[in-house]
Amino acid sequence: MPTPPVNLAHHILRGTSAPLRRVLDTALEGRELTRDDAVTLLNARGRDLQVLCNVADIARVEDVGDEISYVVNRNINFTNICYVGCSFCGFSRHKHQPDTYDLGLDEIVARAAEAWQRGASEVCIQGGIHPKKDGFWYREILRALQAELPEMHIHAFSPEELHFGHSKSGGMSLRDYLRMLQDEGLGSIPGTAAEILDDEIRRKLSPRKLMTGRWLEIVRAAHEVGLRSSSTLMYGHIESVHHIAAHLETLRSLQKETGGFTEFVPLGFIHPKTRLYLEQGSRPGASMPEDLKLVAVARLFLRPWIKNVQVSWVKMGRKMAQMGLLSGANDFGGTLMEELISKEAGSEHGDHIEVYEIEQLIRELGRKPYERTTTYARREPRAAASALSEVPAPGPDELGVYELGSGY
User: ω into residue 150 within 30 of 0, thus cis?
Assistant: First the structure.
């Protein structure tokens, strides 16, 4: 689709502040933004924010066109037993608490098989850092899934989980450990456990978690052995715009080096049931302007290195996700089917969405939906699957009667 004329884009800048206009002019000319430029954009308010979102949407058309992608997937959070103790997490439990759980291989496979029957192409597997597991538990999960579902893409194990597994692998090199998991069926990894890639902030959020250098080491090694990953950032807690800008610059630099990131996903902090908010006085999650700014700034700052920007409908809610898709994003994320991490922290947006609901939300924007794979290839739904989209889309008189949902 042809992009809007440059003179029209520059016309939009009229009435904005001089610093913002300078940075957006740079972006419209296709030049790379600096960290200071990102700070300027992240400080946008009022009319400046509206224009920022408009310009990011223009850049989105130029980068990826007008279609919006989504993936049919299922989350499996296989245990909530975790010793790391992140202050922003409402999901983890000590092993002696009464509401702990630890799924066995049969249950993990059964949930993945159900997702496959319902049309999923991907299963996303993450869980707590269970102190009684060894470095080969993740391999056993992969083996069990591969034996039952050889065509399912397994998107699994955060850099924190890989750090733990590698540390208990009996002396394997990091790359050998990753290759072992890859040989057993690991297709890609989630770029989670990133939060904010600044060690001062990380020590406040979770002093027992891996620090920035180790996160980068693991993700770089994963990319180098052929495992692609998403990239993320958690905002709305104790970070500043300077931390966000530096984090984005770090991701962009790694992408220039490896080319291994498939997308960027801004994740707003879910606060109600977390120690970070209740005991440590963080901000109460992200505001609507922050949600839109993170999407818009990511589009402009990361281009052309990371072209896909995803909205997290679990974090933002469905209507805000639509707004994000008008502010530079091009991907709706996944169906999820279940999700416990955001829910346990206090998310009110649900953990499952049907395919027809995703497509309806996209078409309401005047855009065209399409199903993708984990790595952003186009995918035709399997005819034999009892797909989520079997439920007919509601007619005009029925819009709005379905319960709003969300998920991580």
Answer: no
